Amino acid sequence: MSVIRQSDTFGRHTRRRLLGVGAAVCTAALETLAVGVWFLLVVDGSRSISTALAGLGVLFCGALLRMGVYGLTTTAIDDILTPVRVGATLTLVTGWLVWLLAAELTGGLFGLFVAGALLATILTIQFLLERRVFRLTDTQRGQFTAVLAAGLIAIGATILLASAWFSDWSILSEPFSLGERTLVIHIEAIQIGILVFGVFVFLAHQRRFQQTLEP
Asked: Which UniProt keywords apply (predicted)?
């Protein structure tokens, strides 16, 4: 009997871990795509009212979907568009706007660190607010995980911004034929920055799901 119970416990633990990893991949993909598109629109592209509004729309939809994945994975939510959940989403969007604004107003390497610290603070608040929105127990472990996850995302965001501000290198491959077409692979620093940002976002959310699903 004890062997059967241990096997069942191990099976539940494995399923929870796989669920957490899968949810972290989905969440990281959504957040990286939303933040990446917004970042390219407002930083790497030509700024206008239309691009700013489009960037905000992408950022808000990405944040809302990201929070929906967290809620569906950790609790049995029935409606994502409640006032408190929209408020938590707006807190996340505000965090990214404050991050970029602080970096640009301060400027230089110091601006990167100031903006990163502000982003980490706002994300910590948003993560804790998100837990309350979905009625998850507030524990010391949960608070520490929120701080750790926010710090990881802030580091990734700092690397992303540095790749846009301080790196202008690019890599061009040799032309190669594909049927009747000739292709060239072009890799820029900002693309690597987005990729690194996505890795940090995944690590942050994987830690959050692990803490929530594996008490």
From this structure: Membrane, Transmembrane, Transmembrane helix
